[in-house]
Amino acid sequence: MNVTVFGATGAIGSLTVAELLERGHQVTAYARNPQKVPATWGDRVRVMIGEMSDQDAIDSAVAGADAVVSALGPSMDRKATGTPLVEGTGHILTAMKRHSVRRYIGHATPAVLDPREKPTPVTRLIAFMPRTFMRRAYDEITGMTDQIMSSDLDWTVVRFIAPKNTPKQNRLRVGFFGTDKLGFAVSRADIAAFTAAQVDDPTYIGRAPAISN
After folding, report:
1. Could you tell me how far CA 118 lies from the centroid of its own chain?
2. Crossing angle of helices 188-197 and 11-22, rounded to 10°
3. Which superfamily does 2-212 belong to?
4. Which is nearest to 108 in space by CA: 92, 127, 95?
5. Segment 133-184, tens digit of pLDDT
6. How far apart are CA 41 and CA 35, in angstroms?
7. Which residues, 6 or more positions from 40, have their beta carbon under 8 angstroms from its beta carbon?
8. What residues does each domain of the chain span?
């Protein structure tokens, strides 16, 4: 499949690109900074450079895709302003509609509930902390996912709490708060592997599974 990845040079995004390549997919990587493009990609990855405000560049990146993966996440820099990823996600959705691309996989935290979940002490805590101390980041992650979940796309939102730079374990707890036993920490490598696997797996379409090691 042809897969377009946004946030492709980030910590999780670059690992996701590697997982997609290993699975035999063709990848278009959308990135803001060309200096962050890994040399190891060589000519195996089609690279598009642009800002999330560049509607035309985003449209070009989505054209010809069978699926879109967003590894975008809010900046934790307290000097950051605005919610550029909310606008950017809107541009992605517009491009997907224009080019009839239906499959979307994105990332979030349990501050965003699965449509069939009820709040639990964990989800309340995970929402309270950023809403109180990192309001801009909270508004961005909820603004992004609200657009996705209210769309008619075949979407999956992968949620996690505490990503770590630890080796891939290939051992995940996957489920939903209130019904399944879930932990807090998860390796970025396992997030990437699970994300890549969703591209052609319909199990969690219209769901927001939480994952942990």
Report:
1. 22
2. 50
3. NAD(P)-binding Rossmann-like Domain (3.40.50.720)
4. 127
5. 889 999 999 999 999 999 999 999 999 999 999 999 988 999 999 999 999 9
6. 13
7. none
8. 2-212
